[in-house]
């Protein structure tokens, strides 16, 4: 039975039997992997704590017919405890791993792996507000998956200008000619914030007032829910 090693971030876990768990991981080289971690629910387990959600580990696995088997796990990023101790960080991280799980349904992506690990690391260190970190992650993750939003030119016709109508189905901000009747309008500050979150301009993003951040939150949530095609349960609990 082939053995392989990889770096992995734990997305979710499920109980299996009395002492085992099924661990769903996004790996650096092998995409998304579902594997059985035997005995990890026992208090004497050597690596149970390293295979909790939000943790990043160097894992060794046996390749199985339907599920692989984890045989070793060495911690690389112990972000789980730090994130779980803060409600805002925990709910943001939960939305992140659920998004990564859905976006990598068919195959993995090194870019998606690195983006998720970086976002979880940032959350654990409280480098930025949890809500801003989540919104930035969601916009970037969707962009990598082929749904890059447009916050400058018209998302439909490409016309350059100061547009304000939002049509998430089309891909972002559109001009007046392309806007459907009743399309919501965004102010300049919100559009600037959304662009900053997508580009990773944290100085600009963190300078925005709470009202602007709240409006951007709603835009990102709507954009994410539409393009994933199904609801993110974790978003309902995110601390905004």
From TrEMBL:
- Report keywords, A-Z: DNA damage, DNA recombination, DNA repair
What residue stretches are annotated with the DNA replication/recombination mediator RecO N-terminal domain?
1-79
Protein purpose: Involved in DNA repair and RecF pathway recombination.
Organism domain of life: Bacteria
A single Gene Ontology CC annotation of this entry is: bacterial nucleoid
Recorded hits in Pfam families, A to Z, give: RecO_C (PF02565), RecO_N (PF11967)
Q: What's the protein here called?
A: DNA repair protein RecO
Q: What is the source species?
A: Cryobacterium zhongshanensis
The record ties this protein, via NCBIfam families, to: reco
> Alphabetically, which GO biological process terms does the record hold?
DNA recombination; double-strand break repair
Say if the entry is tagged with keyword DNA repair.
Answer: yes
What family is it from?
Belongs to the RecO family.
